[in-house]
Structure formats: C-alpha cells, structure tokens
Amino acid sequence: MPPKNKFLKEEIIEAAFQIAKEEGMDGITIRKIATKLGSSIAPIYVNFKDVEELKGEVISKISQISNEIILKQDTGDKFLNIGIASVKFAKEYSVIFKDLIVRSNIYMESYDSQVMHNIIEAMKEDEELKIFTEEELKDILMKMRVFQVGLCIMATNESFASELTDEKIIEMLKDTVGDIVNGIKVRKNKK
C-alpha cells in the first residue's frame, strides 16, 4: 500500500518556494523541504518524482506570481505595467530575481517560455505597437528587458533606494519605452 499523502502538493511547492525566496533555486533540496514541513522525505516523493520536477513547479509558481503582479498594475499601458511589475517583483523577491536573472541557469529558459509569449501577445494588442512586425516587437522587448534588468538590479540594491522611488522608476520606464519605440519607428520609416 502506498504511503498516505500527508501534505498537499501545493504545501510542498510553497515550502520549496519559501526556500527559493531565502536561498535561491539551488537551495531547494528534498531534505530542506522535509525539514521545513516537519516531515520525512517520503511525502515529497509521493507527489514528485525528483527535486527537478518540484523546481519546475516552483518556476510555475514564480510565473504565476509575476502575472498577478502585472495584472495589479493599472496604468492603461500594458507594456508599462509589465515594466513596473518587473521592478516590484525584483524588490519583493530579490533573491529569486537575482538567481533567475543574474546567474546563468536553466530556470530562466523555462520562465521565458511561460511568460515571454504572453508579453509579445499583449504588445500586439497595444494600439501604438500594432504597426510593428512580431520580429520588431521582439526587438523592442529585448531592448526594454536590457534596460529593465539594469533598473531592477539597481532597485534591489539598497544603496539606490533613495534615488529610485516608485515615481522615478515609472518615469524612467515611460521615457525609455517611448525612446525605444520612437527610435524603431524612425528607423522603420527610413526604410
């Protein structure tokens, strides 16, 4: 008879997520999760075949949290909402942000596949961006990501806290989005 499922799958994922918040993705081990749950490792293996499968679920949870933060933004500009949400995520989940963005790892590929398609689709719905091809939208997104990652790294560094108020971050994102979009429009019109 298989062991009784003592913990819900969601509880195990949440415990692993809490470890990732404190230590990063590499901090997630079956033994640490069991300790956090006050359990043996058996209930974890009832729900997951290995730690990598569990880490995949943590990445899904991170994607869900990212999407929820995006949906809470209400500037009327989907692209700006994404930028603001990214900075908020970086501030609130700085260890995970640094782990996924600053370090080279397999987890970002998974995150990108779950989130980037949705961002491009949202960009296609923006009236100002409808003139661009999908390749041009990807170019705009890549340029914004480069700026945004730098801004997020600065936002997670407490030494910039007084300079990078929420208002200043929003202003910088708006200006940079406009600069990038207008620059690509100008180049497109010259062709």
Automatic annotation (TrEMBL):
HTH tetR-type domain boundaries: 6-66
A Pfam cross-reference name: TetR_N
Keywords carried by this UniProt record: DNA-binding
InterPro entries (alphabetical): HTH_TetR
Residue spans binding DNA: 29-48
Keyword DNA-binding belongs to the record: yes
Protein's recorded name: TetR/AcrR family transcriptional regulator
Lineage of the organism: Bacteria, Bacillati, Bacillota, Clostridia, Eubacteriales
